[in-house]
Each structure stands twice: as structure tokens, then as C-alpha cells.
Write a structure and sequence with these properties.
This is DUF805 domain-containing protein. Pfam families: DUF805 (PF05656). InterPro entries: DUF805. Keywords: Membrane, Transmembrane, Transmembrane helix. This protein is of the alpha+beta class and 267 residues long. It folds into 2 domains: 73 residues, Beta Barrel (OB fold (Dihydrolipoamide Acetyltransferase, E2P)), CATH 2.40.50; 153 residues, no CATH class. Helix content is 54%, strand content 12%. The chain contains 9 helices and 5 strands. The protein has a 5-stranded antiparallel sheet. A hairpin with a 4-residue loop joins strand 2 and strand 3. Helix 8 packs antiparallel against helix 9. The protein starts with 12 loop residues before the first strand and ends in a 15-residue tail after the last helix.
């Protein structure tokens, strides 16, 4: 990666203190360019001794020697103004989201179609889940109802099919005719298309919901196990069901109020 991408105005680099030994009067800085730098105490320009985790900027010559190290918070007036502006925009966004309904949350998730960073509150997750469920369900109900009206015989049997999906396509054609088969295929295609459209944003909002309660998004990969073990004897009972319960509890858990590595609280 090009080191120039990490240079601040005036040729100063930014990084954070990894360690500092008072006895040896030396320390280490992890630079934003991905490199590690060694420095000596006389280049530290603050009164208080450097501490692990301090955010600093510094100069580095071509030999990698670190010069003139400053703790950002000790002089960073511009940075404080920038942080205040970010916090102000964040608060305004939260005030707007308080008024969100199901449609607004759905639109936000679709705008963040493949955004796996950041955090999502409970309202965002549940309203999006409800909206996608309705989008998949309502067309299927309408198509099935129309097919029911035009089926000439075995209406009670067709009603049982609509609710339990006990039959395959060939059975439907033989028992109910081409109209019912067309309705079945239309419902099936609607479900497949919606599944593809909402797969990525559903996965993304799940990851952001996990971030909001302080958990890694990698936990969402457990969902894949539910598809695998659903075909294994007793897999649904001993694997899928516990995973469903776990994710339900996590999805219902309130926002962690502290900022974390994935950003500020979602509410």
C-alpha cells in the first residue's frame, strides 16, 4: 500500500502507541501505513509519558526513524471540531430515525444493500424482516386465491395444498389442471426471485445487528448450518432449533450504549 495515502498535511503520519518502556526509554508505534516504527523518548513532545493506545502523529525519515511525536488529543483542535461535527450529524440522524416506520427502515436497508459494517438497531432488523416476509407472502396468497377460484374440481383438496404444500407440480397438474399448475409455478418463482433479491441485504442487516450488541458478524455464518443440518436426521431439533433461539435472543437484545469497533451506538 502506498505510504503517501497515509500522510497528513505537512508530511506527518498518524498511528498509535503499541508500547513504551520508561526503563529503556524506547517504544513502538503502529503507523496507519501498516508498518511498525521504533522511537526513542526524546522525540516524544508531550509532558506526560506515552501510553499504550495513545493516538499520535509523527514524522518518519527515509530510514524509518521517528521524529517529533505528538499526542493528537493534546493539540488537535481541528480534530475536536471534526469529531463534534460527526457527533452532531450522528445525533440528528438518530432523531430522524426515531420517526421511521416499516417502509423507511426497509428503504434504509435496501440503500445499505451490501453494507456489512456499522450497526443496526432492533427496529431496523425487525421491520426489514417483516417487510420482506410480507413482500414474499402477499403475492403468493393472491395468486393462490385466484387459482382457487378458477379450479373446477377438488377445491377442498386445493385449499389443503395452499396451506400445506403436500403435492408436487405433476400432482397439482393431474388433480387441479393447468391453471393451478400455473399458480403453483408463479408462487414458486415469486419466492425464488424474492429470496435472491433479499438474500444479501438480509445477511447484511443481520451482521449489523450483531455488531450493535457487540458481537462479531461472523456469528451469522451459523445460519448456513441450519440449511445443512435441516437435511440431517434430528438436525433440526439439535442444531437448527438452538441456533434459531440464539439468533432470536440476539435480535431482541437492546443496543449496547457504548461505541465499539463497528461504530457508535445505533440509537
Amino acid at each position: 500500500m502506498d505510504q503517501n495515502n497515509f500522510l497528513l498535511k505537512g508530511g506527518v503520519m498518524r498511528g498509535n502507541i503499541l508500547d513504551f518502556s520508561i526503563q529503556e526509554n524506547t517504544g513502538y508505534i503502529s503507523g496507519d501505513d501498516g508498518k511498525r516504527y521504533t522511537f526513542i523518548g526524546r522525540e516524544w513532545k508531550e509532558n506526560a509519558a506515552p501510553k499504550k493506545g495513545d493516538i499520535v502523529d509523527f514524522e518518519a525519515d527515509l530510514s524509518g526513524n521517528v521524529l517529533k511525536i505528538y499526542k493528537i488529543s493534546s493539540y488537535g483542535g481541528a480534530l475536536k471540531v471534526e469529531a463534534a461535527a460527526i457527533n452532531d450529524a450522528y445525533r440528528k440522524q438518530l432523531e430522524i430515525e426515531v420517526k421511521y416506520g416499516m417502509i423507511a427502515w426497509f428503504k434504509k436497508c435496501m440503500r445499505n444493500y451490501a453494507n456489512f459494517s456499522g450497526r443496526a438497531r432492533r427496529s431496523e432488523f425487525w421491520y426489514f424482516s417483516l417487510m420482506t416476509f410480507l413482500i414474499e407472502l402477499i403475492p403468493s396468497i393472491i395468486i393462490s386465491f385466484i387459482a382457487y377460484l378458477i379450479v373446477d374440481n377438488n377445491k377442498d383438496l386445493f385449499f389443503n395444498y395452499v396451506y400445506y404444500y403436500d403435492f408436487g407440480a405433476s400432482d397439482i397438474y393431474q388433480m387441479f389442471g393447468i391453471s393451478a399448475l400455473g399458480a403453483f409455478l408463479a408462487c414458486w418463482m415469486c419466492s425464488i426471485i424474492c429470496g435472491f433479491i433479499f438474500l444479501i441485504p438480509s445477511f447484511a442487516v443481520t451482521v449489523r445487528r450483531l455488531h450493535d450488541i457487540g458481537r462479531s458478524g461472523w456469528w451469522s455464518l451459523l445460519i448456513i448450518l441450519t440449511y445443512i443440518f435441516s437435511f440431517v436426521p434430528f438436525g433440526k431439533l439439535f442444531v437448527c432449533f438452538p441456533i434459531y433461539i440464539l439468533f432470536f435472543v440476539w435480535a431482541c437484545t437492546d443496543t449496547k450504549k457504548q461505541a465499539n469497533q463497528w461504530g457508535l451506538p445505533a440509537k
